Amino acid sequence: MSKAGGHTTYDAVAQALRASPCAWLVTGAAGFIGSHLVEALLRLDQRVLGLDNFSTGRRENLAHVESAVTHREWHNFSFMQGDIRSLETCRKACRSVRYVLHQAALASVPGSIEDPITTHESNVTGFLNTMVAAREGDVARLVYAGSSATYGDDPRLLKVEAEIGRALSPYAVTKHVNELYADIFARCYGCDSIGLRYFNVFGPRQDPGGAYAAVIPKWIAGMIHNEPVLINGDGETARDFCYIDNVVRANLLAATVENQAAVNQVYNIALGQKTTLNQIFEMIRSLLEAEFPHVHDLSPVHGDARVGDVRLSQADVEKSVRLLGYRPAFGVREGLAQTIRWYVTEATCVSSTESEGLFLARPDKPAMDFS
After folding, report:
1. Does the annotation mark 171 as catalytic?
2. Does residue 94 register a pLDDT over 90?
3. Catalytic residue among 99, 151, 171, 267
4. CATH classification of the domain holding 207
5. How far lies 72's CA from each of 21, 26, 68, 114, 369, in Å?
6. What does the DSSP assignment read for 76-117?
7. Is the pLDDT at 354 greater than 60, yes or no?
8. Residue 361: is its pLDDT beyond 50?
9. What is the pTM of this model?
10. Does 229 lie in the same domain as 144?
């Protein structure tokens, strides 16, 4: 494999995977991030099993994957409708796969506060079931979705993996427990895993009611439909917004990294930059302006700041660069351009206030029935 700065490049990883296809399990395959992982793996000629119970995942996401890949590539995909809260389901899914990309979770902070038991069952019991099944199935490596929520009330702007604060929600507790279990499975059973702490992921197919940067699809719809766009506070709250393709690359790098010192670790996956809400608003507005002239003079509506909201958050990605060879390929504006293009050309826009979702599958691309 070719090297860059002493690390295997993503392009070299992709080339190696095409040359030697293997079997992967993606849990939460019908979700925002999971469906992008499925698509990327199919494009690399991998054999992929998707697992989802559709509690938050959407059949339309898999329909979009089918339309995005070739017929031959799609035939490398199989799907199992099931719940990770069932150990037997996890055991069945982990048979004969080399890598597991574990994305299945209930990722809502408010939801976890309202119903901590269900969140625990999915995020902790489900994670433990997946780890047990991966161990029994002799899976080579499990890569799991962590969260920047693990940092809790850590007051520092720059978030470094080794320093976390107190959790601020049951959801944050569950993601920290995942990391603790992964460490114990490495120590007690020799099971290799890598955790990826995602920061504010955004991109096509994102659910506006989802856990990550849902503000982005909401604002895109609001601007297109000439509806008021609300910013909580003065808009100078900043986050580390990360385009979905960067996250996909990080998962594949983590699954295949050969340096044993990189394994059984957790990593920040982000851009390593902070962007304010005001900047996000202006970027979306300017990118829409050519096709939707009415947004030229659009200004946001500022509401009250949310109580307890962290003012500034930025990831230190030095560890992921150094040990995984991770290098974000898309900046915020590039990612927003790709996201807007998808929503405008690949989906039918509906009102941002509708409860059934922001964007629906195109009429000529009906949702698939996997039941």
Report:
1. yes
2. yes
3. 171
4. 3.90.25.10
5. 14, 19, 12, 44, 20
6. TEEEEE--TT-HHHHHHHHTT-SEEEE------HHHHHH-HH
7. no
8. no
9. 0.91
10. no
